[in-house]
Every structure is written in C-alpha cells, then in structure tokens.
Amino acid sequence: MNFLILAAALFLFQGESDKRLTGYVNPFIGTEKMGHTYPGATLPFGMVQLSPDTDTISYSVNGTYNKDVYKYCAGYQYSDSTIVGFSHTHFSGTGHSDLGDVLIMPTTGILQLNPGRAEKHKDGFRSLFNHKNETAEPGYYSVMLDDYGIKAELTATTRVGIHKYTFPKSDNAHVILDLVHGIYNYPGKNIWTFLRVENETTITGYRQTNGWGRTRTQYFAIKFSKPFKNYGYKSFSGEQIYKGFWRKFNQESNFPEMAAPQLRAYFDFNTDEGEVILLRVALSPVSTRNALLNLEQEAPHKDFNLYRKRASDIWERELRKIEVETEREDDLINFYTSLYHAFIGTTEYMDVNGEYRGIDQNVYKAEKHTNYTTLSLWDTYRALHPLFNIIQQKRNSDIMNSMLAHYDQSVHKMLPVWSHHANENWCMIGYHSVSLIADAMVKNITGFDYEKAVTASVATAKNKYYDGLEEYITRGYVPEDKSGNSVSKTLEYAYDDWAIAMMAEKVGNAGVFNEFIIRSRYFKNLFDKESGFMRPKLSDGSFKKEFDPLDTHGQGFIEGNAWNYSLYVPHAPDELVKLMGGKKRFANYLDTLFSMHLPDKYFEKTEDITRDGIIGSYVHGNEPSHHVAYLYNLTDDKWKGEKHIRNILETKYKPYPDGLSGNDDCGQMSAWYIFSSMGFYPVAPGSTFYYLGSPLLISATINLENGNKFRIETTNNSVNNVYVKRVILNGETLDFPFISHYDIMRGGLMVFEMSSKPH
C-alpha cells in the first residue's frame, strides 16, 4: 500500500472515531466449526449468557460417546437451520461443556412439548430460522422464528436475561419452559427440577444437574409482562412407583407446584397481531428468593430498549480500555471481537447481596470482592489473565480472592484447577492457579492476601494424590507407566513451581523459594539428548522405548506432541536453548517445526485439533504452542518470529463465523490475538517481561486503571512490512526485544519502525 492510499485508509478510520466500538464486534465469529462461541446477549463477565441453542444432540448414543456433540459446546452452530430455544447459561469457546439452563421457547398453534429433530422440525417445538433475519451485537440478539412468525429479541443485565417476543395474532400462543434441555446432555444428567407459580405473572424454580459440574443447582425467577391464561407441565421422567399423596391432584394442569427430574412447562396466551410479551428471567446460585431479589434490583421495569441501550453502553465502556487504529476494517473487527470474547469467558457468580454457593455447596457472602467462576486455567493463565493484569486489574484481584475462597472451601485444600458454578471439574493438568497468583503479585496487583496466596499455592503443589504429583515430587518427573500425559505434567508442574518461587521471592520467603526453584528445574529430567526431545520416562528411570515425536496419543503428552511440548519451558528459556544445543540449533528446531508437514493421521482422532489451526507442525488451535513463535527472540533470527507471528495473525483469525482456528477457550485464543496485534506477549506469566513481536495495528492506546495511557505506534506498517527495524520506547531505542510491565503501567509511547526486510 502506497503512502497516499495508507493515509486515506487511516483518515477513514480516524474520521470514524466517533463510531461506537461495539459496531466492530461480530459475536458470530467462532460460532461455526471449532470456535465454540455463542452469539447471544451477555454483559462483560455477566452471570447470564442468554443465547440460542440450535440442537439437542445427546452426549451419548446407546451408552457410547457421540462425537457430534462436540460441535455444540456453546449450544449454537452457525451451519444449523433450526433453533430449539434460548437458554441462559453458556460457556464461550470451551472444548467440553455443560450448562444450557432454563431454556425458553415461544410458539403458536398446537402445543408441543418435545423439541423434535432438525430433519423433522415440525414434529417438535423447534423452529426454522434464516441468518438474513438474525442479528447479534454486544448485549443484544434477535432472530425471526419462521415456523411461528415470532420475532425474538434478547438482552441482559449481569444476572437477568430479558426476552422480547413479538407475536402474531393467535388464540394458541405459548411460552415453553424446558428444564430437560441442557448442553452435553445425557439420560440421568438432571437430578431434579422444581417450579412454583407464585402468581399469574411470576414463577420461580430450580434445576439440579450432574454433569461436568458434578453437583450444580441453578435457581431462577421469571416475570411475564402479561398474565398467562393457562399453564401446566409434562414430566419426561418415566413412571414413578411411589406417588405419595400428590396423586389426589391433577398436577399437570393449572396446579401451582411442579416437580420431576425431567420437566417441561407451558404458559398459554391469546395475542393480538404485533403484541409483545416480555420475560425477565433472573438467575441465582443460592435461592429463588435471591433470584427475585436480583430481578427486582437489576430489571425492575419492562422497558426492553432501555436494557438494550444500557448493555450496549456498558460494552462500549469496556471496549474503550484499548483504542486502536488499523489499516483494514477487518482487523478492527478481529481486534474488538477478540476483546469482546476476552470479557465473556470468566463470569460473575454471586447475587446482588453478595451471596454465592461455594464448592462445598454451602452459601457464602463475598464481603469485599466480586466472586467469579468459569476458570479455565490451563488455557487462560497463558495470556488472558496477564491481559487482565493490564486492563482489568480490579477484576483480576477479585479473581484472586475468588480462588483463595475456593481454597478455603476445598476439602482437598487446593486452589482451583478448572472450576465452574460451585464445582471443581478437574479438567486438564497442572495447577495453573499459581501462575495467575504469581503474575498478579509480581505485577503489584493489590487487594488480596499475598501470604495466604503463598500458603495456598504450596499446599496445592504438595497434594500427593493429585495427578502423578507424588511421583513428581519423589522422582523429579512423572513416570508414564504411573500416570499418563507424564511429559506434559512434568513440564507444567515445573513451570508452576517456578511461579510459586516467584511468589515466595516477592514476600521474602527464602525457604519456599529455594524448595520450589529446585523443583522448577525438573524439566531437565525428561530431556533426551540423543533424540533432542522431551520424552516420557518410566518408573525405572529409562525412557519409554516406543516413541514418535509427531504423535499425541500414548507418548506422554496432552493436546500436543514432542515437537511442540519440548519447547514448553517458559520460565527458563535460556536453559532450554542450552539443552537443545545453543542458539543455532534451537533456531533450526523452530524452523523445522514451522515448515515440516504433520500428516493427518496424527490428529485425525483428536477432536480439538484440525488442519485449520496448523502451520507446519505448529498447532495454533491449541494452547501449548502459543508462546512458541516468540522464542525466536532467544536466537539471532528474531525476524523469523516476526514473520510467523504476522502469518498467524493474518491466517488463523478471520472476521467470519468459521474464523477461529480452534476453541477460543474462554478467551485465551482471543487474548493471544490482542497481545500479538499490539506487538508484545507474556511468554512466562509470573515474570514482569513481555517478548516483542510484530504488531498488526497502526496504533493502540491502552487506557490504564491508574489513569495513565500507554500508546503503541507503528511506522511504515503494512501487510508486507512485517519486520521490526527498530523499537523506540519513550524516545530511547531498545537494545533487546523485551519490555517490562512497569514500562506499560507508567504510560508512555512505544514506536515500532517496520520494514519489508529482516533486521
């Protein structure tokens, strides 16, 4: 792009500086194929995620895992043609799932209480829809339900989902409440459901499930804007032998209490043409009383447009934390959608009165912090929470306190591994909560107890019955014949132990520092000099004989292979370079990784890895490789890292429904994009240093909570000019491709001078 065209492009976007940033967010990005995002209405970190679900595929068929269910981790697939309803809880970008609570579906005509199948949609209450009549923006979603002529519109507060349904004229209009529905559903997942009709416009209830969250209870309260004329329910639980004395009533019609493991209810109306029925649905982790309180305080009136505007304004304020200029509008869309996704993974989990349910299933009150859940820590410790330590410091402090509360409530006396909705689900490996804490501490995030954090981290790291940890502590590695994924576990434990050492150094605890800095070097115990890879060892001290560095399965790794995981020593990169034979051989290793071909057979049975996320044998669609391109900064060929980073930015993020090359994983994929497009990345959270890369943006201004502004500018930047000629920080040229967290927090100006040729 020549200067005049570039100037015109910049003028265009600068001239549109008054345009709301929400206009650049496309919630449909990631809703097709692997992204596993949802398009519905939510607020930043909101407890309600009100979104359409497009199918009801069971987790199992005849007792066997149904691989098609994987598409529906977020409840919605863009390629589908039917909607079964709108539920209030969803994960964003995960590779496993749960939730889908309190599904609402408006219908007309003959009442049907079964969703039916997509190929025979008229046999159930689901409806056809068309993307031409579908809209999504931050805090708002709408769609036309073609089978019923009903326009559905959704918005939300933090704890309340607001539904606006515009009906045709009908004497048979219905609102179905489906408490059978769930995401990753299977027979027996619902333990119990309960409904209570408080009056002709108000119902309360709960459902208890046994899924990814083993013991999860979701309370709710619903207010209709119009009295229903009739109501009832149907149980799909099968015949119950003992019926008690409830049998004296006709419980299925106009009886104010409904209870069964599998329950669908209906509420009937007469509607005029264009008549609106508004539903306000409040959630609570504690009680129906608290759900009503949440509703009364957050959504006391019936003005849908006001709630929609408030949601949009809240999103605009959050997105303004980083203001960017780009050469192309697509880059703006990718950036602000990434920022949007970064703010919807972790969610609030408490009522307006501060009460929440702890992992011991008791009720607690958060007195001095906001309680958070949905902590996908194996993913998000890498970049999402380091991002929060720059632009969401108060929230990240509250997340630290939430994790410490989890520790207090844990019978295992462990910090969270992967927690959601008052449950520890134990997903993935490591104990990466310690990484979050260490990163917050070394970056001076305040508001939580540093000493308690160290105590909790040490206790977590010494729980010998956790996932091969006893063997790791006693042998210095996890043996593959004692615990699978042993190499990945050993490497991640070593990094986490370094993080604990950094905490201990921060508080001046020499004993803990010395103990865990020694443990942090255990990665060396699995390096095989002969092959040049990290390799699984057996309990007798020998390397496992059968070894294929390209294979993920049975080789000691999880969601990666030896080629990728051998580079996972983020806390001791210089030692890794030395292990691998020095800078030149290390650079050759990286070159081979990015250029070699990975045959399909090595990932065809791994549902969370596809060709879309692969460059050579580098797998961007999964997290263990996210730091790898930045390791070129340790070589004499840092320009190669700049080339690869820009290639990843350009090819693995697209402004389309199928534009994500892997699960967004509660915002980690998006956080990588945010950091990398600005030109720096936290390779080792727990360190105060960021590795520099190749910024995609023309400029970015980070509006910090301390009132300072850190501005990044690029000169001569374009699609072809991907190499960094020079970096100037506050008027001084940097000698090394790194910057400090404190450089950012002080505010100032960092300028990247770009070139078409390597430097």
| Measured distance between first and last alpha carbons | 21 Å
Count of beta strands: 39
Percent helix:
25-40%
Rough outline? globular
Give the amount of beta strand, in percent: 15-25%
Number of helices: 18
- Looking at the structure, the CATH topology of the largest domain is GH92 mannosidase fold
Q: Mean pLDDT across all residues, rounded?
A: 95
Major sheet summary line:
9 strands, antiparallel
Structure report:
The chain has 2 domains: 31-317, Beta-galactosidase, Chain A, domain 5 (Distorted Sandwich), CATH 2.70.98.10; 320-755, GH92 mannosidase domain (GH92 mannosidase fold, 2-Layer Sandwich), CATH 3.30.2080. Helices cover 26% and strands 23% of the residues. Mean pLDDT is 95; it is low at 1-16.
Give the structure's gist in a few sentences.
The protein is an alpha+beta fold and 759 residues long. It contains 18 helices and 39 strands.
Structural key phrases:
alpha+beta, Beta-galactosidase, Chain A, domain 5, GH92 mannosidase fold, 2 domains, disordered N terminus
Give the SSE layout:
Elements: H1 3-15, E1 41-42, E2 49-53, E3 60-61, E4 64-65, E5 82-83, E6 85-87, E7 103-108, E8 127-128, E9 134-137, E10 140-145, E11 150-156, E12 160-167, E13 170-178, E14 190-199, E15 202-209, E16 216-224, E17 230-235, E18 257-260, E19 263-271, E20 275-284, H2 288-298, H3 304-319, E21 322-325, H4 329-342, E22 347-348, E23 355-357, E24 363-365, E25 372-373, E26 375-376, H5 377-380, H6 384-391, H7 393-409, E27 418-419, H8 433-442, H9 450-461, H10 469-475, H11 486-507, H12 510-519, E28 527-528, E29 533-534, H13 562-565, H14 573-579, H15 583-595, E30 614-615, E31 618-619, H16 638-651, H17 668-678, E32 680-681, E33 689-692, E34 699-703, E35 709-715, E36 723-729, E37 732-733, E38 738-740, H18 741-745, E39 748-755
Parallel strand pairs: 35-39
Antiparallel strand pairs: 1-2, 2-6, 3-4, 5-8, 7-13, 9-10, 10-11, 11-12, 12-20, 13-19, 14-15, 14-18, 15-16, 16-20, 17-19, 21-34, 22-25, 23-24, 26-27, 28-29, 30-31, 32-33, 33-38, 34-35, 36-37, 36-39
Helix pairs in contact: 4-17, 7-8, 8-11, 9-11, 11-12
